[in-house]
Queue: 4 jobs
Job 1
Amino acid sequence: MNYRGRFAPSPTGPLHAGSLVAALASWLDARAHGGRWLVRIEDVDHPRCPPGTDAVVLGQLAACGLMPDETPWVQSARGDAYRQALESLVASGQAYPCACTRQDIDAALAARGVVRERFSERPYPGTCRPESGGLGGRPARAWRFRVDGSTDGRVEWWDRRLGNQAQDVAAAVGDFVLKRADGLWAYQLAVVVDDGAHGITHVVRGEDLADNTARQILLQRALGLPLPSYLHTPLVRGADGHKLSKQNGAAALDLSGPVRALQAAAAVLGLPEIAAHTPADWLERTVPAWAGMMRVPILGVSR
Ligand code: GLU
């Protein structure tokens, strides 16, 4: 098999202990399969990415011995590919322009008796669907993917750690955004187009992204792209029980001892403690341990 895996950090800040878990797992999985490991800088949300952070992230990975096999791709340079994908979805009737503000969406949901809880998803009520009257003379703000129609809104998929997964995307999310009202490309479209263009066969990433997978599978099908396999890794939680994230101020990875940082990430993945003096030695010794863990059908790592 021509295994191609990737780590796809958003350079909104330096990597933290949680991001290293996903980076390490994706690297180990690629090496254990004799495959290639790529890094993609996911800076589609450009205003949230301070200049120079991509170099900081690549430097942190290098300090841990995690070197990409190909020159990293940068999403902010990939607009033409995303535009082409959107145009092909529009041409096949699977994407349409939307004029709704958040308030419009809440009002339409309320009119149907849907009470939205704070912070819950806003399943798009389909106001701007062509058969509901389209934009109705209002200016287009965003572009949305149509979840039903030729595609079925319910998606089932297999995760190598979490097992069988299913989501009814039509009910949970509705027609989701491909291009945002602020003109930026949505994560869902960018990640699917780039995984396709990169020939990614295995996606290994943090569990906080698992609930995006069904949407991404719908997009892969709509764009005629091959479906990668998925493995979502355990999250690192802070003292408050919340997952570490840049948004809640997680500290940058402590690289005063890179082997120690790698050992901590490995413990989260359920790997045994392995000693070594350098990151390169440690990584070499850890690949067989990862390969051994892969022989069980669902990984034995703690959830
Ligand atoms: N850029 C995303 C993040 O930093 C990861 C995307 C992915 O792995 O699919 O959370």
Note: DSSP finds nine helices and ten strands in the chain.
Job 2
Amino acid sequence: MRYLVTGGAGFIGSHLTDALVARGDEVLVLDDLSTGRIDNLKGALATGAVELVEGSILDRDLVDSCTASADVCLHLAAAVGVQLILEQPLDSLLRNVRGSDVVISSMVERGGKVLVASSSEIYGKNGDVLLSEDSDRILGPTSTSRWAYSMAKGFSEFLAKAYTSERDADTVVFRFFNTVGPRQTGSYGMVMPRFVQQALAGAPLTVYGDGTQRRCFTHVRDVTEAVLRLCDEAAATGKTFNIGSPHEITIGDLAHKVIERTGSDSEVIMVPYDEAYAEGFEEIGCRHPDLSLIRRVTGWSPRLTIDEMIDDVIAYSVATAPAAVPVDAKEVA
Ligand code: UDP
């Protein structure tokens, strides 16, 4: 099979590319290298089974030339990270709305299968203990920029669904919940690589708010396995799936665990949200996925523990230093 992976040089996209190549598939990666890095694809490119096209998903002619030779498209290219969305709202919206329109429409029009990456951000501030795929989306006002990301992801999901219901297209949507692991960068706000880099540098770990907010982290290796199962499962067509872990941890506890596992003597400091984020931020207390649908359809459950996730991120940060460890003190703090 020949797969088109948009955003294939990014964190999750590059792991998916590696996994596809490992099982004998060919991959065409389309990436504008804005947040993705060629380095993430070093191993995959060396196999000769991967072709990298550097360009934008906003370029319809380029996207058409990529979808023309692909059997399946994994659409992951997006502006991601709360910090990036708040700091560059216009560019993020255009890439996430227009870009998704171009990629999904192009692939469907040539009759191929499309899997669309969405996010737990879809649920907004719904505080239900268990978020199932049919849970309500509770978004704040348009004056709060954070909700633009949820709106953009919602657009992609509705578009994929409409192509399936009205044009019989083969589409699948999945929603990632706090995926972590090697190759994730802390430059756009993601907490795990930031804490690990801060701990390794002996800098204070910056817990935003009071640290009682909870998240369920999932190792990118488990996430990759989930996406591949959805690629191969005919019964997944037209459906939407949560991909995440059922194990919650508070951000305060995560900071202490990272300190323990790095053996760092860093301290933990609390940073008020208005100092941490640009205007337009609103915190989410908890995001906990109901995973029964993906388990039922594919048999998938995550296996790796939070300790294994932290250890893998530490090993990656150490192995890639100084390239992955920010030298800019502002970025560390
Ligand atoms: N966070 C933090 N310190 C940081 C970066 C993030 O305390 O240096 C917090 C952030 O406010 C949120 C949680 O960690 O409560 C997860 O943030 P991330 O951006 O990784 O994911 P999301 O907010 O999308 O769940």
Note: Confidence is low (pLDDT under 50) at residues 327-333.
Job 3
Amino acid sequence: MKRRNFLKNSTAATAGMLSAPLMISCKTENEKKISSSNEKNINPIVICTWNFFNASAKAWKVLSNGGDALDAIEQGVKVEEDDASNQTVGTGGRPDRDGKVTLDACIMDKDGNCGAVLAMQNIANPISVARKVMEDTPHVMLAGKGAEQFAYEKGFKKTDLLTEQSKKEWLEWKKTSQYKPIINIENHDTIGMLAIDKNGDIAGGCTTSGMAYKMAGRVGDSPIIGAGLFVDNEVGGATATGVGEEVVRTVGSFLIVELMRQGKSPQEACEEGVKRIMAKNEGRNDFQIGFIAINKKGETGGYCIQPGFSYRTYSEEGHINNPSQSFL
Ligand code: ASP
């Protein structure tokens, strides 16, 4: 038995008798409504930040072939990790100020299991390494050299992630070394993805090369469970893109899922999430954050600070790029 499963099973065995009745009695009316509505009508769907058609199409292919949400997430976001022309995710990602491409990713399944890698170099698919952390270790996060070493042990190959284009732009940036993210353009194509499969189960993933020209060792929200991504299979999921420091400060994705648990729609919850951030940043309007969310019924929402953000949905009803409403 895998160590993680052993730990899980033994905890469940000792705690089960005590916690099960408690869990039932603690379910709010709203939670009951969310769970029972899904038992009747399950329509698989995938949503992702930005207009990532290829990634959402790949994830939809997995879902429509009967695959589970976790596989759909991994396969879907990998498309962007492998696309060297996307300069904010995986291969081709913009480097830190020292010229090193460091990748962050996390993944979360229907049972609340999660895995993440932080500031990992030389490995092309951090989402798959994050999944291995989740499935094959007793830990949630591996960082830096430890994450890279673990990836090699799991058979991942060393890859040069710095493309000629990203290197050229970094050398140009070094001439002034001014750290000023350009809203919607320079830094914000992180892919966060949420999926519901034919069983009505939800999974999510988030992967990025982080803010361009960040300080060495900087990690944003994207690989932090609760900040860049959160899934609760009873309620829904949320994920973020944008200036990670601000998302971390409000534990943004967790907040949005909790707001949905309290009865807000995914749209209302995303709006409230952005408003909380703006309340902490009075007078500032020079940064972008976009949240997307999905609930157990497959309803979706998205909201951002600046105009220009959108999110893509892909389901039986077809696929669409949804321009998001914005706070400003
Ligand atoms: N959220 C990412 C980070 O802060 C960047 C982004 O989404 O653009 O690392």
Note: Residues 12 and 18 are 10 Å apart (CA to CA).
Job 4
Amino acid sequence: MWDNVGYIWDSVCKFESNRMTWQLRLAHLYPDHMNIYGDRGNMIALQQRCRWRGIACEVVSVGPGASVDWSAMDIAFFGGGQDSGQALIAEDFLERQGPALCAAINDGLVMLAICGGYQLLGHYFLTHTGQRLPGIGALDVYTVGGKERLIGNIVVETDAAVFGESFRLIGFENHSGRTYLGAGVRPLGRVLVGRGNNGEDGTEGAVYHNTIGCYLHGSLLPKNPQLADHLIRMALRRRYGDVGDFAPLDDTLELRAQQVMVERMLRVKR
Ligand code: GLN
């Protein structure tokens, strides 16, 4: 009998160790200062979608004064914030994390930055009151605040060249900043409904290597599982090479909800 117990225990351990061979390290930048409209939900979605697939996740919170080995990180997330929250951490972000994070981004670190976080990945954010917040310049974009805020639900059609296919993202935007893209980045997609980067050129977000910045709160990733999986797949590919058996999940409900929202938004627009 004890032989059997030993055998069963052995099998359980093997099963666990097989499932846990993939491991990802996630860095969450300034979670206490930069977390509006549920942006933290993006971290929860990444972890849960990894957990469902048996991919182990380690999460590191990067607050003011933290020192981080960016070369050991797989995915970085930076949420949005009010101008005042951004002002509190911009200098620390530039000095403490800027050089090593830029190097990691150039090396293909997978990163998602939303709104205020997106702005601080660029060259600078000039707020509508005239305060110039420095960015780390990882993305070739700059942002200028305007008096009128760009607020509302948004639908974006992604650039097929970025994802290999084009799909529609839904989200919620609320920003005074107008972001303008330089030649070093390409837009994440084009705005079907809403205002996007600057309300003028029809673009939304910016992509550089494996880093995506955009204005979509929501939370973005629970509402758009295609994007969540894109980030996880890129991170696995970067760390482990071939990810052939990256298991699909049943996203029937999420995709249905996404579809309903896209249709509703397109209808309202007409
Ligand atoms: N404070 C910035 C702006 O208003 C970012 C806002 C946000 O992250 N939602 O443009």
Note: Residues 2-269 form a domain with the Rossmann fold fold (CATH 3.40.50.880).
